Amino acid sequence: MDRAIRKSTAWDVAEKAGVSQSTVSRVFTGSTRISEQTRARVMAAAEALDYLPDKRASRLRSGQTGVLAVVLITRAEDSAQEVNPFTYALLGGVCRAASARGYETLVSFQSSPDEFYGRYVEQRDADAMIVLGTTQNAEAWDYFRPILQRDDHSICWGLPYEEAHSVRSDNRAGGRMAAQHLWAQGYRKPAFIGPVECTQRQFQERYEGFCEALGELGGEALIMRDVSTNDRFEQGRDAVARLIETGAEFDSIFAACDFIALGASEALTQHGIDVPGAVGIVGYDGLAATAHASPPLTTIKPDLEEAGRQLIARVLEEEPDGEASLAPVDLIARASTARS
């Protein structure tokens, strides 16, 4: 009978790479204290020896699970297909950042009280928890609020309340970009549409940045904040209808999110108002679908790869908690604001 081929060990990798066994261990647990040169040497040695670390033994020794829990809050009435594409894009950024650090992700969709569960760290199911998703499920945020307040190993996307550990896009900078872009295109009577007075204050920050930049330019924004529905697309349609009914003078719109902007654009077209000739529109979120709208939508796009990296680094306590936890944004100029 042939003798079984001996599996390579971490000691073999260490000897071949010329490092200690503890260094090999730190490389495979994703430590940031290892230089890239050393990491590359260890990985090359591991590949040459066909070495695979014993994850279970490593986790037992370290007391870590190697798993990050990601909770996606959805509305009770929404199916998985109806979840905002922005959330899926952000989830992708988080999962890629976790994978780059050697972590697996456990993703849970939660929408109703019978599904709410956030004790992954406490129950040793995961080393940390990240909460993403809609701002329109108040019950869910009420459930997760005390966890996010007390647990340093939990973090969320957005700004649900001051005392929560969080990362968000640079909303004020995005609002300023929208104002400066519309002004540069010759628009002088801008309107902001979107619910700014809600629990999660990201829309408020976008509005404040927009108004701040307009004031510096000598302009002022009209605001349509009231909404009669939770459907963002319908919010945009309704806001435009009210603007027209009241006879308000406006030549441009900055919408709190892309779906509101898309609803506004459709309503303007149905009223025979030319976009961008008569009214220019800017959205926020950078949804991929906005490039295929008619006309293609100018939008503020957060860097979701950087957002994912920040969320992972912060929840693993490798970056300090503070006001600087803002993912950068960029303006993607398209035909919805391209005045001739």
Written account of the structure:
The mean pLDDT is 89. The protein has three domains: 10-62, lambda repressor-like DNA-binding domains (434 Repressor (Amino-terminal Domain), Orthogonal Bundle); 67-168 and 308-313, Rossmann fold; 171-302 and 327-337, Rossmann fold (3-Layer(aba) Sandwich). With 340 residues, it is α/β, with parallel strands linked by helices. It has a six-stranded parallel beta sheet with strand order 2-1-3-4-5-11, with helices on both faces. A six-stranded mixed beta sheet has the order 7-6-8-9-10-12, sandwiched between helices. Helix 1 packs across helix 2 (21-28), helix 5 crosses helix 11 and helix 9 crosses helix 10 (258-270). The protein has helices at residues 10-17, 21-28, 36-48, 55-62, 85-100, 138-150, 171-184, 202-217, 232-246, 258-270, 304-315, and strands at residues 67-73, 104-110, 128-133, 154-157, 166-169, 190-193, 222-224, 252-255, 280-284, 298-302, 326-327, 329-332.
SSE ordering: HHHHEHEEHEEHEHEHEHEEHEE
Biggest sheet strand order reads 2-1-3-4-5-11
At the fourth level of CATH, the homologous superfamily of the largest domain is Response regulator
**Low-confidence region ranges:** none
**Number of helical segments?**
11
Protein name: Transcriptional regulator
InterPro entries: Cro/C1-type_HTH, HTH_LacI, LacI/GalR-like_sensor, Lambda_DNA-bd_dom_sf, Peripla_BP_I
Domain HTH lacI-type: 12-62
Keywords: DNA-binding, Transcription, Transcription regulation
